[in-house]
Design a protein that fits this description.
alpha+beta, 3 domains, eight-stranded mixed sheet, single chain, Rossmann fold, 14 helices, four-stranded antiparallel sheet
Length: 394
């Protein structure tokens, strides 16, 4: 082990005996009381030394036997310590791809803040390279989202769509102006490959492998109706195969991220549709009219709103792919212009939905959609509180 105090956390001394790591309350920690020698020793935890050398240098600085190991152990248990050589063979392979690692260093630093175990951040980054994600929809939301996933190190990102690129599909970070008139899938594939830290594997297009091996499917329809009132029939195969899928898009002047559907665990598009029908018997009639009345006019899709949706959806997708449970699991996050205030609307499992989730789970915590909304701003920061003189600072 080559210990390193996580460099993403800025250090500041609150007084002569107390040091704070980090600025934001969600991840900041305070150490104290701390003597001068221990404070100076922290500078040696830079990832260039193994424990034997650190123990020797600690003795030279006057630290008692066992002090270095105790300090390293406490730092590791508090989530402040990383291992510059940890993570196993996959992590070593990542470090060997210098150009790609340079592109991903900011992502690695961020992952270190949400991954407490030393070496865990680079393990997660290496694991992303083995994942396969499919994005259905090559518009302003879908291509930007796919490019973000590819740029963050996801190894295989496919984009599926029909037709040719229109001028209103163009977006910074997505489809470029020179792609107008080209097949959407071809133009999206190039955008994704441009965003990748290094050359990813080519997507498989064999028949029968549409959903096999997919870690996640993102549904980002260019038509806002597909995210406002998603058709349950379009995701039947995903429910059947147990494939997680996430909705993201813009309808009129409202951005939508979620729900992330975990088949058998969270409510799906069918549950959403049936609960809306329970509350409003005219809902099926409206949806039928919207779906049958195909309009040739250009759909509203504010560029900044679409980019915000793509960014939030990509962040939730990466959290899920890294093994966490994001806030959009079974929840729709919505925001509307001009206020752009994000609100959470839980999607509860419905007992009449063929997905059968309601029979397997109970969601007593979730209010009906349309009830009190929970905003992002209302979420409370978290930190680990340690015993003794080691404490969390919020």
């Amino acid at each position: 082990m080559h210990p390193i105090v996580k460099p993403a956390l800025r250090r500041g001394w609150r007084d002569l005996n107390t040091v704070q790591f980090g600025m934001a309350p969600a991840h900041a920690m305070v150490l104290g009381p701390m003597d001068t020698a221990t404070g100076s020793f922290l500078d040696l935890l830079d990832g260039t030394r193994g424990l034997p050398l650190l123990r020797e240098q600690g003795r030279e600085m006057g630290l008692p036997d066992g002090h270095v190991d105790a300090l390293v152990d406490r730092l590791a248990r508090s989530g402040l310590l990383d291992d510059a050589t940890g993570g196993g063979p996959a992590a070593d392979a990542m470090r060997g791809r210098k150009e790609a690692m340079d592109r991903l260093r900011s992502d690695l630093a961020s992952l270190s803040l949400v991954t407490p175990d030393p070496g865990g951040a680079v393990m997660r980054l290496a694991a992303r390279r083995c994942l396969r994600v499919q994005v259905r929809g090559a518009g302003r939301v879908g291509v930007v989202l796919a490019s973000l996933l590819s740029g963050a190190g996801v190894g295989e990102v496919e984009v599926r769509d029909l037709g040719r690129v229109e001028p209103w599909d163009v977006a910074p970070g997505g489809l470029p102006a020179e792609s107008v008139g080209e097949r959407r899938e071809d133009a999206a594939r190039r955008a994704v490959r441009r965003a990748a830290p290094d050359r990813p594997a080519r997507a498989s297009s064999k028949e029968g492998e549409e959903t096999r091996g997919l870690s996640l499917v993102v549904l980002a329809p260019r038509d806002g109706l597909g995210v406002h009132a998603p058709d349950p029939a379009s995701t039947e195969s995903l429910i059947t195969t147990g494939t997680p899928h996430l909705y993201a898009g813009v309808v009129e002047a409202t951005g939508v991220v979620g729900p992330l559907v975990l088949p058998g665990e969270t409510g799906c598009a069918g549950c959403l549709d049936q609960r809306r029908t329970d509350r409003d018997p005219t809902w099926p009639r409206l949806v039928a009219q919207w779906r049958s009345g195909r309009q040739r006019r250009v759909a509203a899709c504010d560029l900044a709103l679409a980019t915000a949706v793509a960014g939030l959806a990509a962040s939730h997708a990466l959290a899920f792919l890294d093994g966490d449970r994001p806030a959009c699991a079974g929840v729709r996050w919505e925001t509307s212009l001009p206020g752009c205030d994000w609100n959470a609307k839980p999607v509860r499992a419905h007992p009449g939905c063929p997905c059968g989730t309601a029979e397997k789970t109970k969601e007593e915590w979730a209010p009906e959609e349309g009830g009190p909304h929970e905003t992002m701003a209302g979420q409370q920061p978290h930190a680990t509180r340690l015993a003794g003189t080691w404490r969390a600072h919020v």
